[in-house]
Amino acid sequence: MNNPKNEELFAGLGVDASVSETKIINAIIQEQVKAGDMMIPLLTLKEGNVEIVEVELTHSSHIVKKKIRDLSLPQGSIFIAVIREGEVIIPYGETEFQPEDKVLALVKRTSEQALRKML
């Protein structure tokens, strides 16, 4: 949607997921301002209670060189895709994270900080 003022209108019409260019741009700017904070919200669902977020892993990321099965994900979060060298990987327990992987996760708003800390 072009105008964030219309978000309430769309919600009233029963639209669960709306994409606001203004919110996306704002989120990207905020992420750039917070130097150590690399999580970018891509889509907000269910009245803002769930987000799909993207994180680009660096060499110093806590989960690099670790397999998903060896991680304790915060409750209310799940990895949904890994983009590596332009290829999309559907992650499972044996997936090992590499530097420069872009990780997409579905996370409840209440678990976002814990996931952010983990990454």
What is the percentage of strand-forming residues? 25-35%
Q: What distance lies between the first and last C-alpha atoms, to the nearest angstrom?
A: 30 Å
Strand order of the largest sheet: 1-2-5-3-4
In the CATH hierarchy, the architecture is 2-Layer Sandwich
Helix residue percentage = 10-25%
- Alpha carbon gyration radius: 15 Å
What's the number of extended β-strand segments?
Answer: 5
* CATH third-level topology: Alpha-Beta Plaits
Q: Biggest sheet, in brief?
A: 5 strands, antiparallel
The CATH class turns out to be: Alpha Beta
Q: What is the number of helices?
A: 3
Please mark out the parts with pLDDT under 50 across 5 or more consecutive residues, or reply none.
none
Name of the CATH superfamily? Regulator of K+ conductance, C-terminal domain
Assembly type of the chains comes to single chain
Structural class by sheet pairing and helices = alpha+beta
Tally of structural domains: 1
Shape descriptor reads elongated
Question: Can you give the mean pLDDT?
Answer: 80
